[in-house]
Design a protein that fits this description.
single chain, alpha/beta, three-stranded parallel β-sheet, two-stranded antiparallel sheet, 8 helices, 9 strands, about 15% strand, globular
Length: about 220
């Protein structure tokens, strides 16, 4: 719900508050304007897109976001280099987006888009779900490569600490029923892993906010 609200998904309605990005109010901005501003969202369950290859999809997106037409050969060279880093066969560049891809390949394609588009704000929605240990390692390295190459912010939503153990985490935030109830350094992850999550739910109940926000659903409020 948080990521969809920030990205501007029309199924989610912001009923209070404002969304600012680089000092600009984007609360009412359409999705394409937010993407052009440098906001990127990787989906938990990426969909297949028939009729357009991975290479053309990303090249068109890069041209639109950057405002500069991407020359085919330099773009392809960079794309193949990124695919090699993600251990993706180059033939996937010629296939329709996510068409017949495994769950792991779909997640890698999301990371490939992120690395090629170089957004200012990247939001990864449970990017680790459904990945085996090898794919998790590859995706994690792709995320770290993005952090080294781009001067952007990265937000990861996850219910599992597996991927966080492989990333350099700067700040940890804990949400219960749509409300931020705690934040701290990376060490908070190990604390939660060891002592559990229930204390945050009790804390939310004591603050009278448990159940105050609806679960993520079609038409849900954020």
């Amino acid at each position: 719900t948080l990521f969809n609200a920030i990205m501007g998904n029309p199924k989610y309605v912001v009923t209070a508050g404002k969304i600012f990005f680089e000092g600009k109010d984007i609360t009412e901005a359409p999705v394409n304007e937010r993407a052009k501003a440098g906001i990127f969202m990787a989906f938990q369950q990426p969909i297949a897109v028939q009729g357009i290859s991975v290479e053309n999809f990303i090249r068109n997106a890069k041209s639109t976001v950057s405002g500069q037409q991407q020359r085919i050969m330099p773009f392809r060279k960079k794309l193949h280099a990124q695919m090699e880093q993600l251990k993706m066969d180059k033939s996937y560049a010629e296939r329709y987006v996510n068409d017949g891809f495994s769950g792991g390949e779909r997640k890698k394609t999301e990371i490939l888009q992120m690395c090629m588009l170089e957004p200012k704000l990247t939001m990864l929605d449970e990017i680790d779900s459904g990945l085996d240990v090898d794919a998790l390692g590859v995706v994690s390295r792709g995320i770290e490569a993005y952090r080294e190459q781009c001067d952007g912010a990265l937000i990861v939503i996850t219910h599992n600490t597996r991927i966080l153990e492989r990333l350099e985490v700067d700040r940890t935030h804990v949400m219960v029923k749509g409300h931020m109830v705690a934040e701290g350094p990376a060490s908070l992850i190990a604390d939660i892993d060891k002592n559990g999550f229930e204390r945050f739910e009790r804390q939310a109940a004591e603050q009278g906010i448990a159940g105050a926000a609806p679960a993520a659903r079609e038409g849900a409020d954020a």
